[in-house]
Design brief:
Strands 1-2-3-4-5-6-7 form a 7-stranded mixed β-sheet. Strands 8-9-10-11-12-13-14 form a 7-stranded mixed β-sheet. It is built from 5 helices and 14 strands. The two termini are 34 Å apart. By secondary structure, it is α/β, with parallel strands linked by helices. The chain has a single domain, classed as Ribonuclease Z/Hydroxyacylglutathione hydrolase-like (Metallo-beta-lactamase, Chain A, 4-Layer Sandwich), CATH 3.60.15.
Length: 241
């Protein structure tokens, strides 16, 4: 009987792990009418597909079975915490020419990847450019979670489509410097990232066309949608807890 219950438990656990074909997706068009497909995995994990290229963001095996996913051409890692950096997921997604973009403290852990620091930019292909931007805590007592200058957020430029993936941050003043953001992902997971009020303030600092709250755990993010309607920011809610 114990074996039976163990088997049932294992089945329940794995039933909550996403396979590649289970993902909810949104599609956007570039100026050349090519598709940019964003697949919503969970928490801080995303997949972006463009012209047959696969970009994985913070892949973590607790959220998905990455052995069922296509191999990645590029993997972006924002920082070293276990819900963002997972060597098992990275290995499952890696092929011979996979390029890993990573911050220094994460590279110190897994000993591979091309380091980007805040302010760096990098062309991955002719039509894909990555910018590394600051991500950190500012509230007193939270600075230890994500200290300044250590972690990255990323702006993924695909042709004319600009996607801001914040990583773990609060509503830092540098957000005012973001320009022409089409799609933004903001974390709403207090006390580690933003409160709902901070996320609303952050969105108003740079006015993305479309905002996805992500990395939100048990936080009720529905008020973000209703409170930003009057500011011309479309808020889309996905299962990114």
């Amino acid at each position: 009987m114990k074996l039976k219950y163990l088997f049932i438990t294992i089945c329940i656990v794995f039933s909550h792990i996403l396979m590649a074909n289970d993902l909810e997706k949104d599609t956007f068009k570039t100026k050349s009418n090519k598709d940019v497909i964003i697949s919503f995995i969970k928490h801080g994990s995303l997949m972006i597909t463009y012209e047959g290229l696969q970009i994985q963001v913070d892949p973590v095996t607790m959220f998905a079975d990455y052995s069922t996913f296509p191999k990645a051409d590029f993997i972006l890692i924002t920082h070293e915490h276990g819900d963002h950096l997972d060597s098992v997921a990275i290995n499952q997604l890696t092929k011979n020419n996979t390029r890993i973009i990573i911050n220094q403290s994460s590279r110190d852990i897994i000993s591979k990847g091309d380091v980007m620091k805040n302010g760096d930019s990098l062309h991955l292909t002719e039509n894909i450019k990555i910018e590394a931007v600051p991500a950190y805590n500012t509230t007193e007592g939270r600075e230890k979670f994500h200290p300044r200058h250590r972690d990255n957020g990323y702006i993924v430029n695909i042709e004319d489509v600009r996607i801001y993936i914040a990583g773990d941050t609060e509503d830092i003043p540098e957000l005012k410097e973001l320009k022409d953001i089409d799609i933004a992902f903001l974390p709403v997971n207090q006390p580690y990232t933003m409160t709902v009020d901070q996320a609303i303030n952050a969105a108003n600092m740079f006015s993305p066309k479309i905002l996805y709250p992500y990395h939100f755990g048990d936080t009720d993010v529905k008020p973000i949608k209703s409170r930003l309607e009057d500011y011309g920011i479309e808020v889309r809610l996905r299962k990114m807890e």
